[in-house]
Amino acid sequence: MQENQLTIALSKGRIFDETLPLLAAAGITPAENPEKSRKLIIGTNHENIRLVIVRASDVPTYVQYGAADFGIAGKDVLIEHGGDGLYQPLDLQIAKCRMMVAVPKGFDYAAASQPGCRLRVATKYPDIAAEHFAAKGVHVDIIKLYGSMELAPLVGLSDAIVDLVSTGGTLKANNLEAVEHICDISSRLVVNKAALKVKHTLIQPVIDAFAGAIAAEAV
Ligand code: ATP
Ligand code: MG
């Protein structure tokens, strides 16, 4: 571990866009836009701070093993990862959405989700889905998918899906409806526990700047 170097793991897309103002509050400006660049390691205006661009669901893994000192990951990804070796000091209040159960319009979910019933559920989030239905006493066959969950009930792969919903536009376009709210999701700052100790003087000011930016946003 290089004690005077900071490596930050970020994913492209909405998390990156919504993270830029937080980085700016901490005085960090990326040298390139990862959306346009093919580079996976991107420098910043600080010689000792760099960004690594990884898949959203890989952020906790890079931070857990110390390949990145800290990163930003959705709570959905963190629940599935388990959070081992990660300190989670801040809810960044970005990339907000809800984890929901959705079914085709007209499907009698109330009847199909009685205790003792059996339901086929397609999802990218098997742990979250399993825990949710276990708490309700509903038996589930979880079908793990990596994307386009909305398709599964339309072609008979599953009865229901567990997925992230923000506007509900995708559900509506596919004749599905959200029938149960599992939890609210937003992105969190995740810090490698060892790095927080060893690089405290580098990391703490970034945490404080992020916290300040969120507090200002909340006013
Ligand atoms: P990929 O699209 O490469 O398969 P991904 O779906 O995990 O990866 P994104 O779609 O960029 O990546 O989502 C990243 C994070 O943004 C998710 O982990 C979640 O926390 C949050 N997110 C996902 N969908 C929404 C949404 N509709 N609205 C707001 N935040 C969302
Ligand atoms: Mg996606």
Automatic annotation (TrEMBL):
Q: Which UniProt keywords apply?
A: Amino-acid biosynthesis, ATP-binding, Cytoplasm, Glycosyltransferase, Histidine biosynthesis, Nucleotide-binding, Transferase
Q: Which GO terms describe its molecular function?
A: ATP binding; ATP phosphoribosyltransferase activity
What EC designation does it have? 2.4.2.17
Fetch the CDD domains from UniProt: PBP2_HisGs
Q: Which reaction does it catalyse?
A: 1-(5-phospho-beta-D-ribosyl)-ATP + diphosphate = 5-phospho-alpha-D-ribose 1-diphosphate + ATP
Give the superkingdom in one word. Bacteria
One GO biological process term is: L-histidine biosynthetic process
Major location category of this protein: cytoplasm
Q: Which GO terms describe its cellular component?
A: cytoplasm
Pathway listed for it? Amino-acid biosynthesis; L-histidine biosynthesis; L-histidine from 5-phospho-alpha-D-ribose 1-diphosphate: step 1/9
- What subcellular locations does the record give? Cytoplasm
Q: Identify its protein family.
A: Belongs to the ATP phosphoribosyltransferase family. Short subfamily.
The record ties this protein, via PANTHER family, to:
ATP PHOSPHORIBOSYLTRANSFERASE, ATP PHOSPHORIBOSYLTRANSFERASE ATP-PRTASE
Q: Which NCBIfam families match?
A: hisG
User: Which HAMAP family does the record associate with it?
Assistant: HisG_Short
| The protein's name | ATP phosphoribosyltransferase
Query: Which species is the source of this protein?
Result: Neisseria dentiae
Species lineage: Bacteria, Pseudomonadati, Pseudomonadota, Betaproteobacteria, Neisseriales
